[in-house]
């Protein structure tokens, strides 16, 4: 697994833990649903700005995106 896939799995795990659909996460983060899907599939190279949006939408500290 590469870093994008590991990150995508973490986003998916956190999203499901908050009982959010990809669509709901997209709305809360200001991103679109296909982009969220691409992140979760490990197909997107995510910027720091996108990481910040995801963390805010998930109501977590950004460091939680990297914790095992």
UniProtKB/TrEMBL annotation:
Give the matching SUPFAM superfamilies.
lambda repressor-like DNA-binding domains
InterPro entries per UniProt: Cro/C1-type_HTH, Lambda_DNA-bd_dom_sf, TransReg_Diox_bact_type
Q: Which Pfam families match?
A: HTH_3
Q: What sequence ranges are listed for the domain HTH cro/C1-type?
A: 11-65
Gene Ontology cellular-component terms for this entry are:
cytosol
What does the UniProt keyword field contain? DNA-binding, Transcription, Transcription regulation
Molecular functions (GO terms)? DNA binding; DNA-binding transcription factor activity
Any idea what this protein is called? DNA-binding transcriptional regulator, XRE-family HTH domain
């Amino acid at each position: 697994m590469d870093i994008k896939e590991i990150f995508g799995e973490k986003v998916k795990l956190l999203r499901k833990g908050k009982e959010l659909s990809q669509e709901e996460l997209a709305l809360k983060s200001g991103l679109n649903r296909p982009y969220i899907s691409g992140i979760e599939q490990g197909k997107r190279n995510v910027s720091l700005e996108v990481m910040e949006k995801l963390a805010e939408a998930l109501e977590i500290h950004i460091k939680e995106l990297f914790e095992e």
